[in-house]
Amino acid sequence: MPRVVFTSNLQRYVSCPERDVHGTTVAQALAGVFADTPQIRDYVLDEQGHVRRHVHIYVDGRRIWDRERLSDAVRDDSEICVLQALSGG
Amino acid sequence: MSDRLLVGTRKGLFTIVRKNGRWLVLEPSFLGDPVTAVLADPRDGTLYAALNLGHFGVKMRRSKDGGKTWDEHATPAYPPQPENAAGPAWKLVQVWVLEIGGGDEPGVLWAGTIPGGLFQSRDGGGTWSLNRSLWEHPARTEWMGGGYDAPGIHSICIDPRDRRRISVAVSTGGVWQSRDGGETWDVRASGMRAEYMPPERQGDPLVQDVHRMVSCRDRPDIFWAQHHNGVFRSTDGAASWQEVRTCALSCFGFAVAVDPNNADTAWFVPAIKDEKRVPVDAQLAVTRTRDGGRSFDVLREGLPSEPAYDLIYRHALDVDASGQRLAIGSTTGGLWISENRGDSWQCIAAHLPPIAAVRFAA
Question: What pLDDT, in 10s, does the model give residues B231-286?
Fold first, then answer.
């Protein structure tokens, strides 16, 4: 199962421990997280469902390219990291 | 008179309280987080703060125990953006101002946002809805950014006699008014002039960069506006505006406050226009008119005597309900309070984070 890891800086505002999820795209993987803890969604995505400008998402060390539909593929053993950008602080 | 002041800064919310004749700075809330707007609702004592987290977006906080504890509540959100929509992205950049609704509608709040949104909550911030008629007004996409990349609503005046009369000011997009509770809107910037525009557009209401607009509680037809290139006043409910050309020191600035009890008394904090934005002669001063703008006093007692480069942002000057106490907070973290209508000031703190907003609580 893909695993989702959040920056510790987000823990300041909302509980978001690492967790295993289902899905073959970033959107599907994060949907499982948001279903469990809806308040995380608003910290990671804006109201249009796009990745926030100063948030980065990596899959197995590569930054995702589709920040609007989150269609980047994930494998069963992928690690998805949700990080804050160095900008925007 | 108010004994409590909320101070929204780049690094958290500070509460200042007056005890035994002294103003004390209490421990901050949200240390490290930018606070862009604050509100103390006199109807039920609830406090509201809008945060703008650098990475994780705008967040709203609410306290029902005077600021001891805060909960997270709903953030205003734009509806899904249609394909090819003109204007800025339908994404919340900042809550710029929070105001209460009418005295007879507890729980009603208004929020002015960047980009150019006016939101209403009917349940004390539990949910928010975008005012669609203003957002969908064809002229809205003509608005321009002023200070920020996208235009924003920074001033909201609810007429205490008739809460269906709502006036908002836009940087940059003039003054807009509804007389039917927000169902329809008209631009009301007649008489303003924009000297930064080509000559043929200077009188266009849509290009007026109002920095801040306030109306008088006891005479709500009287408005004051600190505009990018001048001070303007309306005595007919914003139907027309007259330029006040007698400003002391400079007609440039961001902030204005009006005495709730006396519409002829208003305060400003002038700065050198517009490329410099520092106090004139490096001497921080508040100016005050007590005769509707015919003349101005320059008030410096208690403000720094050494060179000072403090700029007072548009929400960082406030007057309490009595009209006696004022506060100013600066971009360089200075905070001053006057207890005598601005005649003299005391420095409450010299080293706060950059101050975006000050607001007296009842």
Answer: 999 999 999 999 999 999 999 999 999 999 999 999 999 999 877 888 989 999 99
Q: Looking at the domain assignment, is residue B199 inside a domain?
A: yes
Work out how many CB contacts closer than 8 A connect A with B: 43
Burial class (CB in 10 A: 0-12, 13-18, 19+), B191: middle
B150/chain A closest Cα distance in angstroms: 15
Cβ-based contacts of A48 with chain B (< 8 Å): 78, 80-81, 89-91
| A52:B57 CB<8 A | yes
Q: For the residues of B227-244, what is the DSSP string, one character each?
A: ETTEEEEESSTTSS-EEE
- CATH number at A39 reads 3.10.20.30
For residues B218 and B262, give the distance between their C-alpha atoms in angstroms, rounded to a whole number.
7
Q: Is residue B84 part of a domain?
A: no
Q: Are A3 and A79 in contact (CB under 8 A)?
A: yes
Asked if the model's pLDDT at residue A52 lies above 90, the reply is yes
Residue A86's pLDDT band, with cuts at 50, 70 and 90, is confident
**B164-192: pLDDT as tens digits:** 999 999 999 999 999 999 999 999 999 99
Closest-approach residue (CA) in chain B for A86: B55
Residue B147 CA to its chain's centroid (Å):
14
Q: How many domains does chain B have?
A: 1
Cβ proximity of B268 and B287 under 8 Å:
yes
pLDDT in tens, B84-100: 998 999 999 999 999 99
Task: State the nearest Cα–Cα gap between A71 and chain B, in angstroms.
Answer: 19
**What is the least distance, in Å, from the CA of B10 to any CA of chain A?**
11
Residue B264 lies in a domain: yes
Tell me which chain A residue has its CA closest to the CA of residue B82.
A48
**Predicted local confidence at residue A88, as pLDDT:** 67
A50/B91 touch (CB, cutoff 8 Å), yes or no: yes
The answer to whether the CB of B93 falls within 8 A of the CB of B41 is no
Please tell me the total count of domains within chain A. Answer: 1
Interface probe with A: pick from B10, B53, B56, B113, most Cβ of A within 10 Å: B56
- Identify the contact set of chain B against chain A, taking CB-CB distances under 8 A: 53-57, 59, 72, 75, 77-78, 80-81, 89-92
